[in-house]
Specification:
YbaK protein, Rossmann fold, single chain, 9-stranded mixed beta sheet, 8-stranded mixed beta sheet, 3 domains, alpha+beta, BirA Bifunctional Protein, domain 2, 32 strands, 15 helices, RNA-binding
Length: 592
RNA sequence: CGGGGCGUAGCGUAGUGGCUAGCGCGCCUGCUUUGGGAGCAGGAGACCGGGAGUUCGAAUCUCCCCGCCCCGACCA
């Protein structure tokens, strides 16, 4: 079917919408693809909905091809199953909740692990039925505290979520890899530039987890990458323990520790400045750096049962704690900073001068003390001496102090060593477009999904869950495929193959355009025909570029010479082709 | 939830106490124009986010409320 601009339900905007900050949002609005309804909630106009459905079709085809079966759940769900798994409360304010006329609780599904698990439980009960791979493409609802960036992060969004059910871990591993492969080919088809990073499985339960992150400066996830191919979400990054010389004699080869008066040095900067200013404190081999100091951060950790206990973390003074890494490392415990009242409850801890010798389960304070992986045997530190205005120098780990364990929560810097090859890592930003999890038995356990194994014994099924943000993918593709003139869709995503412009005042152009549009349409090409009369050529050219269809054909002044112009939207390349040759030539361009 | 910014026509905006709220885009009518967001003329479209107050007079000042955008916290 030919889409005619004269009647198409679209209005392109000449000016940037005031509320759009990121390119995908700006262009999708300007080109008349989407309109905002409420924060994080958008409607799709004809061009936009076609693009959306093209993306959805790729996901569906790749899923089906990989052997997954499509099902469909309601978005409106009863409370019960989410109560059983604890997520009715865990999800907190992010859950859209509502009541029916009888006062029963319902929710708009944020994700469907519970429903899938229940469904399988209701149908299957033998190991012989497994593995099972099912998926749906569904509208999800999450009442995000702050939706942003147009449809990149909405409160209503479409997600493809699939789930695998296996009888054992080996089966899960196979199912997981199967999904991983399907995702690789899906995103390849979408022409998304992405990287696969190892991620935290923590909050969802389970073990292995990887994210597919689309490269974008507007990404919300920070990940590290290395030339060796290593990539990880910063939350999931584990830096290696610092190396040391195991043969070193700590007592004879390192200076003895010594306490020093260091008044007015409550911050790391002030401490480093004072240390370098005083000749008697010189380190010898180099100036003191912030990384030579050990700062000890106090937190209050809340356990899963609600009880609280203090926790101390010792890390090099040049680094802050990365709260997302902390959260991932402590899960399911959560932590908050020490407050005045907490200091008051622990008078032995002198704010600004806290040292390792007041910390640790074996110390008098009894406070759990965990240290950064860079704090290893033989490292010497300047750190608090637990006396106001006093620090201790050359405090050596393994000689003068110990910790209760390692915790890897310090912020990651560009140029830090790579955990895999020892090279240096770079920080980059990405948009999460896919996430695959080995869930394990958390949901099957909670909802009682068991099958009989070959010995006739009941075993709990192990699950994987896998998601692709379908509506988000539309925005990601726009984000990665545009220029200063507008959108530049990959052909399979685009709302049409050809944007056919009838330019100039000659009626011949309009007639020829109509004729060619019909021919290409009958050849199976998708055509947008700009048949608007009285609209100046400049407007049509600009719209043709803004809309982003891959092939632009202009029929106008060249017609007298028997040629039409064929432009490649992406490269900007334009060639004149004789009208008679153009039918086949454009068809070839559009189909190879 | 913390910080910042902002609500005036479909979109983008001007207007800090005083005539009928101005301009650009878009829209309608007519004429002209037709290869890079045309010109002229005429027109439609705004309870200036809501409420209360101050004042002879409020888009403009005060108070309360609502909403939106951005950064952070949090999250596919």
């Amino acid at each position: 079917m030919i889409q005619r601009m004269s009647t198409l339900f679209v209005r392109t905007l000449r000016e940037d919408p005031a509320d759009a900050e990121v390119p995908s949002h700006n262009l999708l609005v300007r080109a008349g693809y989407v309109r905002r309804i409420a924060p994080g909630i958008f409607s799709w106009l004809p061009l936009g909905y076609q693009v959306f459905r093209n993306v959805e079709a790729i996901v569906r085809e790749e899923m089906n091809q990989a052997g997954f079966q499509e099902v469909h759940f309601p978005a409106l769900l009863p409370r019960e199953a989410y109560e059983t798994t604890g997520r009715w409360t865990e999800y907190g304010d992010n859950l859209f909740r509502l009541k029916d006329r009888k006062g029963n609780d319902y929710l708009l599904g944020p994700t469907h692990e519970e429903m899938f698990t229940q469904m399988v439980k209701g149908e299957f009960s033998s190991y012989r039925d497994l593995p099972l791979w099912i998926y749906q493409i569904q509208t999800k609802y999450r009442d995000e505290a702050r939706p942003r960036a147009g449809i990149l992060r909405g409160r209503e969004f479409v997600m493809k979520d699939s789930y695998s059910f296996d009888v054992d871990d080996a089966g899960l591993e196979f199912s997981y890899n199967r999904h991983r492969d399907a995702y690789v080919s899906t995103f390849k088809r979408m022409k998304v530039d992405y990287v696969i990073v190892s991620a935290m499985a923590g909050a969802m339960g389970g073990s292995r987890s990887e994210e597919f992150l689309a490269n974008s400066p507007f990404g919300e996830d920070t990940y590290v990458r290395c030339d060796c191919g290593f990539a990880a979400n910063v939350e999931a990054l584990h830096i290696p323990l610092a190396s040391f010389d195991p043969g070193i004699n700590l007592d004879t080869e390192l200076p003895a520790s010594h306490a020093e008066q260091t008044p007015e040095t409550p911050t790391i900067d002030s401490l480093v400045n004072l240390s370098n200013a005083r000749a008697d404190l010189a380190r010898g081999d180099h100036l003191w750096f912030a990384s030579d100091t050990l700062k000890n951060i106090l937190l209050i950790a809340t356990n899963a049962d609600g009880s609280e206990e203090p926790l101390a973390i010792g890390l090099p003074g040049d680094r802050e704690i990365d709260t997302r890494r902390l959260e991932a490392a402590l899960y399911p415990r959560v932590a908050r900073p020490f407050e005045e009242a907490d200091f008051a409850a622990h008078p032995a801890l002198i704010k600004g001068y806290i040292g390792p010798r007041a910390l640790g389960k074996k110390s008098t304070s009894g406070i759990e003390f965990l240290t950064d992986p860079r704090v290893v045997r033989g490292t010497r530190w300047i750190t608090g001496n637990n006396v106001k205005g006093q620090h201790v120098y050359d405090l050596v780990f393994g000689r003068d102090f110990e910790s209760d364990g390692v915790i890897d929560v310090a912020e990651v810097f560009n140029g830090d060593p790579c955990a895999s090859c020892g090279g240096t890592i770079n920080l980059a930003r990405g948009i999460e477009i896919g996430h695959i999890f080995q869930l394990g038995r958390k949901y099957a356990e909670a909802l009682g999904l068991k099958v009989l194994d070959e010995r006739g014994e009941l075993v709990t099924v192990t699950m994987g869950s896998y998601g692709i943000g379908v509506s988000r993918a539309v925005a990601v593709i726009a984000e990665q495929h545009h220029d200063d003139k507008g959108l530049v869709w990959p052909r399979e995503i685009a709302p049409a193959d050809i944007y056919l412009v009838a330019a100039g005042k000659s009626e011949d152009a309009a007639i020829k355009a109509e004729e060619l549009a019909q021919i290409w349409d009958q050849m199976g090409l998708r055509v947008i025909l700009d048949d608007r009369v009285g609209v100046s050529p400049g407007v049509k050219f600009n719209d043709s570029e803004l809309v982003g269809v891959p092939t632009i054909v202009v029929i106008g002044k060249g017609l007298e010479r028997g040629v039409i112009e064929v432009k490649d939207r992406a490269s900007g390349e334009r060639v004149d082709i004789a009208v008679d040759d153009a039918i086949a030539a454009v068809h070839r361009i559009c189909t190879n």
